[in-house]
Please model this.
Amino acid sequence: MSNDLASKTIEELAPLIRGREISPVEVTEAVLERTTAYDEKINAFIRLSKEEAMKEAIKAEKEMMEGKYRGRLHGIPMALKDNLYFKNETVTIGSKIHQDFVPDYDATVVAKLKEAGVIFTGKLNMHEYAWGATTTNPHFGACRNPWNTEKIPGGSSGGSGAAVVSDMTIASLGTDTGGSIRIPASMCGIVGLKPTHGRISKYGCFPLSWSLDHIGPMTKSVYDSALLLEVLAGYDSKDPTSIHTPVKDYTKLLSADLSETVVGINEEYFFNNVDKQVEDAVRHAIKQLEQLGAKIETVKIPSLQYSEFAELVTIVTEASAIHHDNLVSRPEDFGDDVRFLLEFGELPSAVDYIQAQQIRYQLNIDFAQTFEKVDVLISPTLPFLPPNIGDSTVDINGNKYSFLDQVIRFTGPGNITGLPSLSIPCGLSGKLPIGMQIMGPAFKEENVLNVAYAYEKTNALQGKKPNLDEIASK
Model:
């Protein structure tokens, strides 16, 4: 029974909790038991908060007995990425330098989840300072992909991806600067949504790149991502990048009706040099969307050829500006890979940065024109399958390429434009999941979510999940 509870979605658990068929205590116990049993092999957690979580579960149960039900997240256990601030709690940001950092306020997203009645079970592993896509953390150990523990789970929100697919949390949040929600969502076989830039407040999240950072849900289902977006979205005066725009009832807009939906495909960029297994899975998914009623249209986005330069220059320079003082005074306290990227980020000139922003401006124009013709754009989330932990290269159709050069090739455009982008599982290659990316117009998350919701019903993974008992026995 406990495993059954841990494996359920928020959508499944919420009515059971509200109807008192199950209690928040039972669900929290189930999630904690599963984490205790399996996380030694996965290493998704930096800190597990058993006692605190059980106290909160008892409190939630008491509130419900008194008729104080707060909504669909009340009594739902969640662990969060360890770069989101919790008042008077240690937040490491996956680093040595901030290993004893204790914020004196909650992140806005944390405050909203607390108000909604979420039970926090711990802090999740991440790439150091969110500056990387492997979650091979030199200070807290490598997080492993639950489908194959020799593989990376992706990053920087690798702990979130691994914990969600392993049922060690009912749902989670990630942060995404170049793909750090969608990359682990793809590699771990879950749903990961990066909303429009400014849709969810970033106040109280340690920054990687001010103009590229996003916070978004990582969940077992599209409905759960839509629900978390409803709760977390909204203007926040504490975040200067927050946008004052209406928040919709995203769960009510999930119709799965694609009869009026036009799906755009860009061949030149998003299907260029893609591993055949990945490409076949995504193209099959597109055919299924067509069978569900969507119209498919090929589109051209000329400025995409320059997007990698724009994303790279923006992210490395902004990240290095944030960490400059520590890079000068205590460089040895960074992991080797992060230190290399921070040193590299000191090299681009002001001219490079301004050119990157000019490309960004043109990309926004080109994408806006594209979304006058189509409702969403679909592509692979990644052009390759998850590599082994420690590998610096990836395999694409038998050829070796730099991991760093390839990993944000398809996800980066969503950050440089700030457009909503979601990764959803669309198949398996052996025992490794493949992700499909769905992008939409600014502040039209409902477009992205509804296409994902319709596709989800095809059950691309056929109910398959990682075999954690097999992993634990090794």
Notes: The two ends are 25 Å apart (CA to CA). The domain at 2-469 is CATH 3.90.1300.10 (Amidase signature (AS) enzymes).
